[in-house]
Amino acid sequence: MLTREDANSESALLSEWLVDDRTAVRKGQAICVVETSKASVEIEAAGDGTLVQLVAAETEVELGSSIGLIAQSEAELEAAKARLEEATPEPARDDGPRNVTRKAAERAAELGLDVSLIDKTGFVTTEDVEAFAAVAARDAAGPVETDVLLDGLSLENVTLPAIFSVAKDEGVGVLDEEFLATIRADPAAFGALSSEDRCEAYRRHGASIGAGVVLGAGTTIVAPRIVLEDGVEIGAHSIVRCEDVFAAGEIAWFGESLKLTCRRAFVGAGTWIAGNVQIGGGGHRDPWATFVIGELGFMGGEAFVNVCRPVVIGREAFLTMRSVLLTHNIGHSVLEGFENRFAGVVLEDRAQIGVGAVVYAGCRIGRESIVVSNSYVVSDVHEGTLTGGVPARTIGHASRAPARARQVELARRMVDELEEFLRLSGVETAPLGDGIRGFELTGAEGPGRVVFAESVGKGATVPEGDGETVVLTLDASGDAPSRCAVLDLLARRVDGEGGVLLDSVREFCRKRGIRFEPGPWRYRGGLI
Question: Cα–Cα distance between 305 and 151 in angstroms, integer?
Fold first, then answer.
C-alpha cells in the first residue's frame, strides 16, 4: 500500500518495479520505485513471501491504494491471482488535472503558462515550468544567431571574442607552406630557438605576431594560420597543433605544458589559462573540432576540454581546475542499445564550472549560472541557477542582488581589507581624517591614498595631496575629478589614470570578481 507521505499529492507514479512478478522477496528488500511531487523513493517489502504485482509500471496510482501483494502461503498466492484476474482496469483519462507540484503551479501562474502543455511523464516541477518557459521565449524571439564554424550552435547569451572575427579572415596569418613543413618535421629544433627568434621567424613566413609576444622554452605552434595579438604569452614546453588556425587576443596568457590540438582555436583577449591544461583529445581532427573562449575567460590547472565537436565558452566564464568538458562519449555499440553521443558544449557569458566538475556532450550552461565542484552535468543548466550533484540538479539561485545599504557596507569593508592587506605586507598606512572612509600611504610607497565614496559626480571633491588618489564608488557620473582615478564597482569601469597604486587596487578588486573596463588589462606587479 502507498502511504500518504506528501500532503501536496493525491497520487503518485509507480515508475519501476525492481522485482519481477511472482518472485520470492524478503522483508526489507526494495521492490519498486515510486515518484511523488517531492521525491523518488524505493518501497520495501513488508515481509517474506511471493510478490504479486497489481499495477503495471509507469502507472499513476492513488495514494493509499495497493500496488502489490506479498503472499506468504499458497492460499494467499492463489487468492492474489484471483483478485488480479477479477480486477478490471479503468480506462486512461487524458482530460483530468495534471500532477503538478504546488511550487510549480505557483511558478506557472507567475509566468502565465498552461501546465497542460508540458509533455512529461510523472510530476511537473518548477524546473520543468522554467525550462518550458525558456524554450517558449526562444521560439517567440525567432531564430538566433549561429555560425557555420560552430556547427550551428546558438550564440544566445554568448559574446564571442573579437579575435574570432579577425581570424576568420582566411587571408590573415597564413604561414608559408615550406616553413610550416620544416616545423612539423623537427618541432624540437625550432623550439630550441629563443622566443625572439621564433616570433621573428613566424612573422617572416606570414604569421601575424604582435609586439611583446613571448613563447616559453621549447614551445611550438604548428598551424597553417597563426594570429597572436600584442602581449600574448605561452608558457614553456607547450604544444599547439591546429589543422586550420590558432588565434589569441591581446595579452592572453597560457601556463606551462599547454597541450592544444584541434582544427581551430580562438582565445579571447585577457583570457588566463593555467598550466597543464589539455584541449583536444579524441576526435581533435574532426571537421567540427573548434575551441572558442571569450575575453577575460579563465581555465584552471589540469582542466580538460574534448573538442571533437565545437566548444564555445563565453566572456568572463570560469572553468576551474581539473574540470572537464566532453563532446562525445566512449562506449559500446549504439546498435546494441548503448548511448553514442557527439554534440557540442556551450558555456554562456559569466558561467562558472566548479573544481572537478564534468559537463557532458550537448549540455548548455546558462549565463551567470554556477555548477558546484565534483558535479556531473548531463542536461542544460538554466541561466542564473546554482546546480550540483550527480547527476546535477538545480539547487537554487547563483546570486541574489544585495540591497543598496548592504552594497555600501561591503564596499567599505573592501577598503578596510585592502588597508589591512597592505599593512600586513609591510606597507605603512594611516586612516584619513574628517570622517572620510579610506587610508593613505605614509611610507616609502607613498604618497597616495584610497578613498570610498558612495557616489562620485561631476565636480565632486576628493581628498587632495601629492601622489595618486584612487576612489572606489558605487555610482560614478561625469568625468573623474582631476588628479585621481575613479573605480565604479557596480558598472565595473575605470575613469582616469594612475600608476602602481591604481594597478594594485585594480588587482585587489579583480581577485574579488570585479574586472574593470576598459581592457584588456594585466597586473604587472605592485603592492599586492
Answer: 17
Q: H helices of 72-212, where?
A: 74-86, 102-111, 126-141, 162-168, 177-185, 187-191, 195-204
On whether the CB atoms of residues 514 and 489 are closer than 8 A, the answer is yes
Cell digits of residue 50: 511471493
Q: Measure the CA dihedral 513/517/523/525, to 10°.
A: -100
Query: Contact at 8 Å (CB) between 367 and 383?
Result: yes
pLDDT one-digit tens code per residue, 399-431:
888 899 999 999 999 999 999 999 999 999 999
What does the block give as the cell for 407? 552594497
Give the count of alpha carbons within 13 A of 282, CB side only: 8
Backbone angles phi, psi at 59, to 5 degrees: -120, 135
Nearest C-alpha neighbor of 193 from the set 218, 214, 230: 218
Distance CA 223, CA 281 (A): 17
Tens-place pLDDT, residues 214-228:
999 999 999 999 999
Inform me whether the pLDDT recorded for 8 exceeds 60.
no
Q: What single letter denotes the amino acid at residue 55?
A: V
Burial 334-345 (b: 16+ CB within 10 A, else e): eeeeeeeeebbb
Burial class of residue 492 in the structure, from the number of CB atoms within 10 Å of its CB (0-12 exposed, 13-18 middle, 19+ buried): middle
**Terminus-to-terminus CA distance in the chain, angstroms?**
66
How many Cβ atoms sit within 10 Å of the Cβ of residue 444?
A: 8
